[in-house]
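User: Here's a protein and a ligand (arginine). What would the complex look like?
Assistant: Let me lay out the input and then the predicted complex.
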Amino acid sequence: MKLWAGRFKKETDSLMDDFNASIRFDSRMYRQDILGSAAHVRMLGECGIISSADAQLIRKTLFEILDDIEKGKIEFDVAAEDIHMNIENILIDRIGQVGKKLHTGRSRNDQVALDFRMYLRDEIKAIKNLLIDLGSILLKLSEKNIDTIMPGYTHLQRAQPITLAHHLIAYFQMFRRDMERLDDCYKRVNIMPLGSGALASTTHPINRMMVAEELGFDRITENSLDGVSDRDFAIELASCLSIIMVHLSRFSEEIILWSTLEFGFIELDDAYSTGSSIMPQKKNPDAAELVRGKSGRVFGSLMSLLTVMKGLPLAYNKDMQEDKEALFDAVDTVKGCLMVFTRMLDTMKINKCCMLRAAKGGFTNATDLADYLVKKGVPFRDCHEIVGKMVAYCIEKKIALEDLTLEEMQSFSGHISKDVYDEISLDACVNGRKVPGGPAAESVLASIESGKAFLDEQKQ
Ligand code: ARG
């Protein structure tokens, strides 16, 4: 018998039961549902809405049910629809009439909002910890590669020399912002909706703050219609997760490129690569490709949530049951990606010599030669023109700028003297860029220090 069957004359069709039920995917919120109910029933007892003996019996039984679920002793029932009614049914089975008092002053509408928020709070923390792990690995790799020169690219064409550390710290900044965004999102998740009732709160003299305090919420929702129908927090988390996936996907793309024979910058560990069923020589960067591919799923979840919510009148509508699968999938996907990605980075081999060779080709020091002439008093636009001609000459001779003899150089500009060779060495190009945020070792070290301080704060 369904908990809401009073006004019905017929049973629901089993097809409808299946269609309507969310237990298949919301059972994962069993712990939050029980903790929420336990806090609710304690409050009912303390406010004199039910007797304290009843409240204590319900609370004690709820914790026994929690224990039994964790021991795998309980099977949920599709006919009971969702996690909320499954647990309430089990409670009533165990303690009869008293169990029927739990749902006093509460609706599944505020209950599901509560459980969802509590569940997401835990997931946000878990994802943040995975980002902290990734951040630490990036800082560790950066420290080891502070002098590893590689080409920096624009338009995927070699542009100016940088270091691998500088490149990695760029990603560190992205993941740092992701952590900050999650912190901000957490503030809006951590608001307690119980007491909103079905939509118009309750006439019982409940104490919402008491529930909020027991469950560790910062504050309570301030409008009962909004309390049951707000899913901004879910959309916001899906946006944060989507941005994390954008970052992981861009990074994956580079890992994939870098592990080609054409680049040869890195070699992924066997433990994070796969082979081909036909081509014996193949070693494929599947982990990075999957991360890149899975970004699509997470963006899809964000789109689903936006679309589900956009036409809904206030307050609760059953459409909102669709919020969970989308966001749970996004959360699971991001966690899986972060775990594999971090291990993949930590175990990859870096081919410093291939990176250096690439930086030496492609005239990555051309800007520095132009800047050298600026320092000799030539206006920048003229310098650009002169060096452009020198590059064209070198392309024809198949040599690098630094391979030109002093006489050859001077045939392009009389302002060039023999100090030019030191000024356009790759080391000078990189380490001359000491601007905060630049690739010089001292600038990158400062970013690493600031990154470490940030991570230490996060760990507290
Ligand atoms: N399973 C439902 C959900 O996920 C719980 C709330 C149902 N409320 C209702 N009035 N039918 O949204």
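Summary: The chain has a mean pLDDT of 96.
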